[in-house]
Specification:
The protein is an alpha/beta fold and 130 residues long. The chain contains five helices and five strands. The protein has helices at 2-5, 17-26, 56-67, 91-102, 118-129, and strands at residues 31-35, 72-77, 81-84, 87-90, 108-111. α2 (17-26) packs parallel to α3 (56-67).
């Protein structure tokens, strides 16, 4: 993101559902990149291992939609499917499915593959359309 925007942006990060929704409720953002399998809690000593929540990213997406602050959202996932209402939806169909089922607009859905930079190209293409 810093390369695309030439360091003219401020980046905030969150690794867990509660901290992500709290951050989104406290401030307006132009863009959110959401991992659909966000963790249950922040990794902290003595707190136990964070568990990936397969549909936790939808909760983050709903929080953004609820705030109605026009934050553009890109879903980024390492998995070929996104779980929507307990059904696996292929990443390339998820944008449409989320709009139809929840009336929530997503700028795009991208699959991240290790050792393959196509995801960067895909995100850049989505950003150019915004």
């Amino acid at each position: 993101m810093s390369d695309i925007f030439q360091n003219r942006i401020e980046i905030f990060g969150s690794q867990a559902l509660a901290s992500a929704t709290a951050l989104l409720a406290s401030e307006a953002f132009d863009l959110a990149i959401i991992d659909m399998s966000i963790h249950s809690h922040e990794p902290e000593a003595g707190a136990g291992s964070p568990l990936p929540l397969s549909s936790g990213g939808l909760d983050v997406l709903f929080e953004i939609a609820y705030t109605e602050n026009n934050t553009h959202c890109i879903i980024l996932t390492q998995y070929p499917d996104i779980e929507i209402e307990s059904l696996p939806i292929p990443v390339e169909l998820a944008k449409k499915e989320i709009l139809e089922k929840f009336d929530v607009t997503v700028a795009g859905c991208v699959r991240y593959l290790e050792n393959d930079n196509q995801w960067k190209t895909d995100i850049t293409a989505i950003l150019e359309q915004l």
